[in-house]
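--- STAGE predict ---
source: upstream dedup step, 1 unique chain passed
mode: sequence only
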Amino acid sequence: MPGTLLIACGNPLRGDDGVAHEVLRRVGDGIGRELRFVHQLVPELAEEIAGFARVVFVDADVASVSPVIEAVCVTIAGSPLTHAAIPAEIVALARGLFGFEGEAFVCRIPAHDFSVGQGLSPHERDTADEAAKQLNRFLHKADGTAGTADAEPEHKGSEADHEARRAGDFV
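--- STAGE serialize ---
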């Protein structure tokens, strides 16, 4: 079973919403890693996730003040599938339908400017660099490879709490 699937979620044509794509470009697809770039999370990702030992969702988050990596909590109540889903729903589908038994994390990157237009704000470029470094440290630790490992996943609030706070901020 391949190692880690990294999924960047966001729209690069909406300013800082594209920060996850930039972070994954900086992290790269090393040995045992595969990258996916999507505009939104959709149920169809569940089958692909099931083929990996670990999945990390990377996304812009208006509620975060600094990049954070935390475990995905899949104990939330399911919601009707709409045009977009949250990581917990996709992981729950992967477990329930396709037998996913791996680890699931979300890397939340603070973002503020979601106006129409390509490119990150100057502040967001620095934040992307910080997030990429943190994600690399986390992946090195998770993979048991060399590198500093001071990016322990944090458990701050539930997945549903984070998604509820940012629900009105995306199109």
